[in-house]
Amino acid sequence: MKTEILKLLRSTDGYVSGQQISEQLGVSRAAVWKTIRRLQDEGYQVEAVRNKGYHIVETPDVMTKEELDSLMKTRWAGRNILYYETTDSTNLRIRQAGDEGAPHGTLAVADRQTAGRGRRGRTWESPAGNSIYMSVLLRPDIAPNKASMLTIVMALSVAEGIGQWIPMIQIKWPNDIIVNGKKLVGILTEMSAQVDYINHVTVGVGINVNMTEFPEEIADTATSLRLECGHTVKRAPLIAAVMERLEENYEIFLKTEDLSGLMDRYSALLVNRDRDVRIIGEKETYQARAVGIDHTGELLVRREDGSMEKIYAGEVSV
Ligand code: BTN
């Protein structure tokens, strides 16, 4: 009922009467009042005015299931929500949920992780209160060798979602989100598959939202939305915005099972587009101009002699 009341309160800029809420939800006015009191205890500022009704003034920066449910506008992305105040890693929670039959689009969100994982076996520092740690379960009916493209789909979706808060967002191919040259978001995609069949894919996203300090090793290379925007940002609406973009972009991806419908938008956000990048190939290291991605997600570069080459992840250093 909390979710439903939050939705009703959010559906108008003005007041919603207790009578209206109780009629729409088919519950007593006493039950409505009780739920409003509980929301107030959780930090929602709900104003109650005689003869007018209730009005939501301020929401706390929480990512609870009710808060997320009440903001979600999607059909499947983020529709089944698992919220943890503390967990080991949302990627592990989603992998388990996937094994247990959870639906496509299931979203795990945590306020804190005790075993946050980064790419290449690194850890992802995950303190409480000011970041987003989330993972999405995808069940695509595609060949396993196409799954890496889902990382690109997610990178574009996160960039477009967060772009509603901060316009200068860019992508460092293949899947870091950058603002002013510093890393704001990391993405870790993991897959459970047979040789020719995907059981499920977990796409994990860590977003630096309100932190102002970072561990020493990343202090020079990491940033947060708060540092870049100059004010704190609420986390739940950000998650809802990313899920909306993901749902749309994923469906575009599925139509062709490649990135042909997304590569122009992705390439437009590339931080190293039209710039020289250093390619560390198997045989040689060379400079080339990054042009964009192709329909499979590989980076296209133009060498000095004008020839084009495709670069695989891991070969480029900016
Ligand atoms: C990177 O190294 O850039 C990827 C970092 C991915 C971190 C996120 S936080 C939510 C999800 N759970 C994890 O354990 N890792 C990912």
Give me some keywords for this one.
318 residues, alpha+beta, BirA Bifunctional Protein, domain 2, SH3 type barrels, seven-stranded mixed β-sheet, five-stranded antiparallel β-sheet, 28% strand, binds biotin
Summarize the structure.
This protein is of the alpha+beta class and 318 residues long. It has helices spanning 2-10, 18-25, 29-41, 65-71, 90-99, 149-162, 225-229, 235-256, 263-268, and strands at residues 45-49, 53-58, 81-87, 107-113, 131-138, 169-172, 176-179, 182-193, 198-208, 276-280, 285-293, 299-302, 308-311, 316-317. It has a seven-stranded mixed sheet. Strands 13-12-11-10-14 form a five-stranded antiparallel sheet.
What this model shows, in words?
The protein is of the alpha+beta class. The protein folds into three domains: 2-58, Orthogonal Bundle (Arc Repressor Mutant, subunit A), CATH 1.10.10.10; 65-268, Bira Bifunctional Protein, Domain 2 (BirA Bifunctional Protein, domain 2, 2-Layer Sandwich); 276-317, SH3 type barrels (Roll), CATH 2.30.30. Helix content is 30%, strand content 28%. The chain is built from nine helices and 14 strands. It has helices spanning 2-10, 18-25, 29-41, 65-71, 90-99, 149-162, 225-229, 235-256, 263-268, and strands at residues 45-49, 53-58, 81-87, 107-113, 131-138, 169-172, 176-179, 182-193, 198-208, 276-280, 285-293, 299-302, 308-311, 316-317. The strands form three sheets. It has a seven-stranded mixed β-sheet with strand order 3-4-5-9-8-7-6. A five-stranded antiparallel β-sheet has the order 13-12-11-10-14. A two-stranded antiparallel sheet has the order 1-2. The radius of gyration is 22 Å and the shape is elongated. The N and C termini lie far apart (50 Å). The mean pLDDT is 94. Biotin binds at residues 89-91, 113, 116-119, 122, 124, 133-135, 186-188, 204-206.
